[in-house]
Amino acid sequence: MNAREKLFGALGRQPGRDPDAGRRTLGERLGTLEYGRGGSEVARFIERAREAGSTALYCASSAEAAAHIATAAERIATATGRTCRCIAATHALLKSMGLQERLRTAGADLGWVTDPALASDATAASGVETAWERYALADIGITVALAGLADSGAIVISSSESESRSVSLLPTEHIALLPAGRILPSLLQAAPLLRVLAGGDGSSAATLVGGPSKTADIEKVLVTGVHGPAALTILVIDDID
Amino acid sequence: MRNTPIAPENIRLLIAERIHDPQLRGNIGRATRTSLVKRSAVVSDYADWEEMRAVAHDIKQHVLDHAREYLESFERNASEAGAVVHYAADAEEAVRLIADIAAPHGKRVAVKSKSMTGEEIDLTHALENAGFEAIETDLGEYIIQLAGEPPSHITAPALHKSRGEIGKLFAQKLGIPFSDDPEHLTKVAREVLRRDFLRADIGISGVNFAIAESGSICIVENEGNARLSTSLPKVHIAVMGFEKLLPDFESLSLFLNMLGRSATGQRLTCYTSILTGPRRRHERDGPEQLHIVILDNGRARLLADAALRDALLCIRCGACMNVCPVYQKIGGHGYGSIYPGPIGSVLTPVYFGAERSAGLPFASSLCGACAEICPVGIDLHHLLLRWRERISRRQGKPVERAMMRAFAFVARRTWLFDVAGRLWRVFAPLLRDSRGGLRVPVWSRTRVFPDAPQRSFKQRWAGLQAGSEEE
User: Is A2 exposed, middle or buried (0-12, 13-18, 19+ CB in 10 A)?
Assistant: First the structure.
């Protein structure tokens, strides 16, 4: 008898007891809990996001958002004395914002996740960086969030053909655009989205991002920017879906 | 340390060592107090936290009641998503399995993110013995790996080390100039480990929750090392016990809202990864293979043990040890186990054998603070009591047993109890000591035995009834 048979044998089966009934009752009780019944106002989301250590800004338009990104790029260029390197998810919203031109004016470089040079199997010719190096040396990774959670100020992102896992993980800062209409009260309302993302047409990696990477492993002193981005900026945009 | 039998005598030694270490007591005291304050602040988000605990408790019980159905469902859905599900009866089998998965084509470098289940099977050492380079990437775990020590807390493994000690460690092992600035030390670790993430062949992680309806595994963290470990290497191996199962994403939403708050006072951790199968064809990155190893190691037997099975409800938040007055004084190493604190004192005898850890359930005042704070409502102090009953039955000293039998004999006979009481009140003053109590063998070494009263309660009650006694 192998380990699987042994385990299943030991777990047995409850005769005549259908888990679905119990699960339904529990689901109803879940639905009455307070955490699933808050508001989804932009102001609440922004406040909670800031409490979690993120920078959260309201933008009346995508143009305003583009301006913020350009400002961030300028800040980095000034601080480092070199061109700011950005990588963005190949998302229609980002393409239509005129991001490339804005950043060029601000003296920054912009690559797209779908660029051949960023394909994970792109081999490194001499003098040319590997895809991993480009991601790791990038200053800003730019993505579009699928949802925001008002009660925690967290965003939902997922990997796809236009957004790699790396773009929100390896660069030093992460800037995420969040259409205001996608803010949900809590994770309970996000459950259907997570279910779809886990499905056949979905994603191998859906991620809830609650703030910049951090640790308090040394004497409980808070340090940001451990393995992931040291800063998370969420730009809540109002004029788009 | 893992192999030290934790008999009652040994636990006293371990405790004595730590009680007399003011630096350690300071570190642990500060850290646990901070955690509790932060937890309170965010638990107060909800007026119905107690109701949340009840629902969470019932969801976990429901899953355990239908463990087989949910495990079948999880296995089916995970496989459909392209993951390979393996089963290991015990630690040796798990390690062999993982080495076999990792070994083909010379895969020899593994990056590991924090996993208590991994610690339980001593995975890192076992892989190293099998010729792997197994690198811990969680900052706290990385620190104790460099130091060659076991973790001292479920969520903060290096809690027992000061910044100066860590600075010295880094200077010694990494050859850098000494610094005790936490920010600087963290940046150093970031740079060193980034290179490891890239060159690793395998990423190994634990699992916080496994979602049956989709075959997804959910991993929570703050640093980003779990995301990196499970995204960059070509092979991802996740290790879990079946008790991590949840039915659906709605349940997950409740547990995620409770775990961060209970563990570190966060509404949500920085990153929550929900991974369903290896990378999809159209995705840009991610592992090509996802292997999920489901470990038994005594869990099925624990499930069948009605008195102790509630220990399987644990979501590994660490709140019980933060609030435990014993843990606050001695820290995790004082328990001699990778599962310390109240839940550790219940689980260690289960996973590592009661003969070897008999002292742990006794290292508690049974104050019940752990049961009150547990987000899934495990009646921890009662579980400790049940272990005490078992251990005493199996391993109790004959003298103690005889004394208990004698006491029971007297206590069951009122007239005899009264006589004994009278004799006690006559002779007790002879034993009075300078602390206001009585000198009693063994007991008085660490406790104050209460002095005998002038008159017994029954005498005073009779006096009250007769009007001759003051209330």
Answer: exposed
Distance CA A233, CA B21 (A): 43
Structure tokens at B183: 């920010």
Q: What is the pLDDT of residues B78-112, one digit of tens each?
A: 999 999 999 999 999 999 999 899 888 676 899 99
CA distances (Å), origin A68, targets A2, A148, B2, B209: 59, 19, 53, 37
Q: Is the dihedral of CA B353, B358, B363, B368 positive or negative?
A: positive
Q: What residues of chain A lie within 8 A of the CB of B232, using their CB?
A: 132, 166
| Partner-chain residue, chosen from B156, B182, B272, that has the shortest CB–CB distance to A207 | B272
DSSP string, chain A: --HHHHHHHHH---TT--HHHHHHHHHHHHHTSGGGS----HHHHHHHHHHTT-EEEEESSHHHHHHHHHHHHHHHHHHHTS-EEEEE---HHHHHTTHHHHHHHTTEEEEETTSGGGSTT----TTS--HHHHHHH-SEEEEE-SEEETTTTEEEEE--SSS-SGGGTSSSEEEEEEEGGGEESSHHHHHHHHHHHHSTTS-SEEEEE-SS-EE-TTTT--EE-SSS-SEEEEEEESS--
pLDDT at residue A122 in the model: 56
Half-sphere exposure of B31 (CA within 13 A, CB side): 35
With an 8 Å Cβ cutoff, are B68 and A8 in contact?
Answer: yes
How far is A64 from chain B, CA to nearest CA, in Å?
27
- Say yes or no for a CB contact (<8 Å) between A228 and B278: no
Can you give the pTM of this predicted structure?
0.92
- CA torsion angle for B426, B428, B430, B433 (degrees, to 10)? -150
pLDDT digits (tens, 9 = 90+) for A98-110: 899 999 988 899 9
d(CA B31, CA B335): 18
Nearest to B186 among A48, A211, A226 (CB): A226
Q: Are B303 and B313 in contact (CB under 8 A)?
A: no
Helix (H) or strand (E) segment spanning residue B329: helix B325-330
Cβ(B154)–Cβ(B35) below 8 Å: no
Preferred mutation among A26, A34, A115 to probe B, highest tally of B CBs within 10 A: A26
Query: What is the distance of C-alpha A52 from the center of its chain?
Result: 14
Q: At what angle do helices B380-395 and B341-352 cross, to 10 degrees?
A: 40
CA-nearest residue to A194 within chain B is B249
Distance from CA of B203 to the nearest CA of A (A): 15
**Distance, CA of B71 to CA of B243 (rounded, Å):** 9
Supply the ipTM of this predicted assembly. 0.96
Return the minimum-mean-pLDDT range out of A208-222, B114-128, B184-198, B431-445.
B431-445
